[in-house]
Amino acid sequence: MNKDNCYQLGHIAKVHGLRGEVLLVLDVDYPDDYEGLEHVFVEEGNRLVPFILEHMVPQPNNRFLAKFEEFDHVDKVKPMVGSALYLPVTALPELDEDQYYFHELVDFLVVDEKLGALGKVKVIYDMETQDLIGMEYKDREVLIPLKDEIIQKVDKAEKKVFCRLPEGLIDIYLED
Q: What is the rounded distance in angstroms from the CA atom of residue 43 to the CA atom of residue 59?
């Protein structure tokens, strides 16, 4: 499986007990959508390796207690701790027309209501404190918070992100 055709679902946080169970942390808005998951791809080096799930039991705070088939001892799963979990993009649930996934915004044109077209989205930073658009503007990376008061509309058909940038945000990045 190619990483370009996948999205990061979460990661393996730690081992649980001695019989090969692990605690998975999912970085998703609706973890209940993943309760019946039968397999995941685990990042090993630069490869995504498929693993079949024996069970995956929901826990509080986007966590799941899971066990991979044929992994019956803590020593077999310990090297996997910290590894990222992936699923194919085709496994994502369909969204309403006015909703979007962050990865869809890459290469969209950012258009400010006052400044006009600014540049293309290069990356989305999915951070604990806030999510950010990384946009290239005048050979500099500009970070734009993904907040409702800033992002006014996303037009998927035209591949544009319409925003109302806070006064002076762009200027901060242009200073030397």
A: 23
